[in-house]
Specification:
The protein has five helices and five strands. It is an alpha/beta fold. The protein has a single domain, classed as 2-Layer Sandwich (Transcription Regulator spoIIAA). A five-stranded mixed sheet has the order 1-2-3-4-5, sandwiched between helices.
Length: 138
């Protein structure tokens, strides 16, 4: 499976790594894991620097809509850093725009190292919401 994720509950960090051709069903499985781990408030890193995809524009919109629906209600979202190559930005631009709308820190980086530095900065660490027992349906 080209999409791998790790939940680091002790540091409240959810890491996703793409390594190969990612399909839409894998993204949905990752979102299921994010919700199931009650990690919406965690710092999140999406490393797409080694990923490829044949996901259609419509599937990307569907994924973006699903992610936006996770943001409903009083759920406080944790910061999101996305590391992607320049040539992938156009493909993912619409979904990234949908993710940027909720009130939470979010930035796009060209390298994973830049993303890690930002996610570990004092200001971002301070912005991570306290754990909540509420979990929206995915």
């Amino acid at each position: 499976m080209p999409l791998h994720w790790n939940v680091h509950s002790d540091s409240r960090f959810f890491e996703v790594i793409c390594d190969g051709n990612v399909e839409a069903h894998e993204v949905h499985a990752m979102l299921d894991a994010l919700v199931g781990a009650r990690a919406l408030g965690y710092r999140k890193l999406f490393d797409g620097t080694r990923g490829e995809t044949n996901i259609s524009a419509m599937e990307i919109v569907d994924i973006g809509v699903r992610m936006r629906n996770l943001h409903r209600g009083d759920v406080k979202l944790g910061p999101l850093a996305v590391a992607i190559a320049d040539d992938k930005y156009v493909l993912l631009g619409r979904a990234l725009g949908m993710l940027a709308a909720p009130r939470r820190p979010m930035r796009v980086f060209k390298t994973v190292q830049q993303a890690h530095r930002w996610l570990n900065s004092p200001a971002i660490l301070a912005s991570v919401p306290e754990p909540e027992s509420e979990v929206p349906s995915a």
